[in-house]
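INSTRUCTION: Work out how this chain folds

Token vocabulary: learned, describes local backbone geometry

RECORD BEGINS BELOW THIS LINE
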Amino acid sequence: ILATTIVESGLSFPTANIMIVHRADMFGLAQLYQIRGRVGRSKIRAYAYMTTKPRLKLTPPAQKRLRVLASLDSLGAGFTLASQDLDIRGAGNLLGEEQSGQMREVGYELYQQMLEEAIGKIKSGEIGLPDDGGKWSPVINLGVPVLIPDVYVPDLDVRLGLYRRLSGLKTKVELEGFAAELIDRFGPLPKEVNSLLLVVRIKGMCKRAGIARLDAGPKGATIQFHNDKFASPQGLVEFINDQRGLAKVKGTKIVIQRDWTKAADKVKGAYGIARDLAQKLIAQKKAQQGK
């Protein structure tokens, strides 16, 4: 089939397994990613060839786009694509020409004044941040591979189904049952799957503790609370004191020093931090109920 970029809108050709993109340097990164996804939609291996004009020197952004596209070959690459696209194109300017919205209606000076007033009210507590109804999700970054490898579950549809099910599991019992099912169907759990299940547990514990972001490395971890608030200030002080000088407040984050030489120590330590903070909240609730 000979087609224009209309195919990127979601047209499906399951039997097509070869694609040639003419003048790929003229397309955006997201466009190329969508266009390339039109082939390989069945079990047959597919190929996408990106062509450019002969002897034409590509612009640096075009080179970056094609280089990034060639590197995106794994499941769940959408976030990486968005990050790379942001890096190549640059972010919008809140108060500049690139920003659309209220500023064009009220003018630069009035918009700046309104923005400063709103920030001042939030800082003073006069107005609060919007309530998200608890529909937020903690961000966990441990620097360890967390996935279901294709060598363990070869079928893509089955893998996607497992990811969907895993995202809905909340309790330790549910995760243990899921792990038992994987072992029964596919054999012993690979290291990456074990890490994935542990990260899901950590994520659940972070949600209970009100931790919006947890980053861990060999030298320790940093945590940031949802809306920059911990529901039990007294419990937070107790937690920091329990660390015996190895935890300190830095801006809106808590920095905790550790010596985690192994990935397993990092995962276990991250879970322990989230669990200890969650227990402080539980203790406060019990104390309030007892009054």
Summary: Confidence is low (pLDDT under 50) at residues 92-106. The beta strands are 18-21, 47-50, 139-141, 211-217, 220-225, 247-250, 253-257. The chain has two domains: 5-89, 139-290.
